[in-house]
């Protein structure tokens, strides 16, 4: 097995400079800095001559603040303050999952059918809150942006900040889950009465389904059976389209023009999640550029933890009162302990994932909330 030091370094400048790279997907578990990484990559690529659009699914709007925008919505908007001397540009947007779902309906149904679907209570519930809809619509929006980029020659690089899911794997699993729900057994059971004689058939389904329908009726309101029947009947011609679009986007994620950047923090759980994602990407034959480990504690100078602790103890003995110098030395020792722990975690990750390119981003002394901060992160990501 390769030693941890054998793992290559991830140089993202080489990735974004390659014109064959058209999509960069930043993925990882929640709270590891995916949004900041995506924004920093977008800024750096734009200032190096790429025409970039960044798609974020971050509900905290931190990307909008970092890019100097008052708000982001489902429409790409230009970012000002970017150095365009090299011919690059940067647009940014935030996914509105319901609006994206509505666009799919409007694009693939007649105006009459679309109006019927959009007004349906069951559709409203599914498009607004069904588990996996956000992840599915993130992939749908990625497909839309890629088609728009080809059609209009507007962007040559799309950077995607994936949803803050419980698990990073949800982004890849969502299309299958949503598709299975839409043409699953329970939906077919609810639709069956219209095809098999109405209420007489429904009564024969048994108490279990009746109870389940009763619960869903309370949640969704209205006549659930009628709403589901109307929804499925109106959407009947689109079921295949959902799966086809999901399959097309999945194929896009496997294409050589796409690169995945797995983002993690130097914590055990986040790096374990990153290992799972690296393995899954390999199984799905999706191109992995490497792993970014954010918020790594670093130290200036060569003062070790033990020497700092010894010096603090010596000052305490020599000075009857509390010494500010001793307090600073103890703080340095604490930071050194954290730095050692972070490097140990990263070393274990490298050992378990030999050959995977890794780069480390030091913990920032301040929150990243402006273009200058994103440029600093970009310099670090460049290696």
From TrEMBL:
Pfam families: ArsA_ATPase. Residues 20-236 form the AAA+ ATPase domain. Signal peptide: none annotated. This is ArsA family ATPase. It comes from Nostocoides vanveenii. The lineage of its organism: Bacteria, Bacillati, Actinomycetota, Actinomycetes, Micrococcales.
């Amino acid at each position: 097995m390769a030693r941890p030091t054998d793992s290559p370094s991830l140089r993202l400048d080489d990735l974004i400079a390659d014109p064959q790279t058209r999509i960069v997907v930043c993925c990882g578990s929640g709270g590891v800095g995916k949004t900041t990484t995506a924004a920093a990559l977008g800024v750096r690529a734009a200032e190096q001559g790429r025409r970039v659009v960044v798609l974020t699914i971050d509900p905290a709007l931190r990307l909008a603040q970092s890019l100097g925008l008052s708000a982001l919505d489902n429409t790409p908007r230009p970012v000002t303050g970017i150095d365009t001397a090299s011919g690059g540009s940067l647009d940014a947007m935030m996914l509105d999952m319901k609006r994206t779902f509505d666009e799919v309906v409007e694009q693939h149904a007649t105006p009459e059918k679309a109006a019927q679907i959009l007004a349906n209570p069951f559709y409203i519930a599914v498009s607004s809150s069904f588990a996996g809809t956000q992840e599915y619509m993130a992939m749908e929006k990625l497909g839309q942006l890629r088609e728009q980029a080809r059609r209009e020659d507007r962007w040559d690089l799309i950077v995607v900040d994936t949803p803050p899911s419980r698990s990073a794997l949800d982004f890849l699993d969502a299309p299958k889950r949503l598709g299975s729900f839409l043409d699953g057994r329970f939906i077919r059971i609810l639709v069956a009465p219209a095809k098999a004689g109405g209420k007489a058939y429904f009564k024969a389904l048994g108490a279990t389904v009746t109870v389940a329908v009763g619960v869903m009726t309370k949640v969704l309101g209205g006549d659930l059976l009628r709403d589901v029947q109307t929804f499925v009947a109106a959407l009947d011609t689109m079921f295949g389209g959902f799966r086809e679009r999901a399959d097309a986007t999945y194929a896009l994620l496997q294409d050589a023009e796409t690169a995945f950047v797995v983002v993690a923090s130097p914590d055990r759980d986040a790096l374990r999640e990153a290992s799972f994602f690296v393995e899954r990407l390999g199984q799905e034959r999706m191109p992995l550029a490497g792993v970014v480990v954010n918020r790594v504690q670093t130290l200036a100078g060569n003062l070790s933890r033990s020497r700092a602790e010894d010096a603090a103890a010596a000052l305490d003995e020599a000075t009857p009162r509390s010494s500010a110098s001793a307090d600073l030395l103890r703080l340095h020792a604490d930071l050194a302990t954290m730095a050692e722990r972070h490097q140990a975690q990263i070393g274990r990750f490298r050992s378990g994932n030999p050959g995977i390119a890794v780069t480390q981003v030091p913990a920032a002394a301040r929150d990243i909330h402006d273009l200058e901060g994103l440029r600093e992160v970009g310099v670090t990501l460049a290696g």
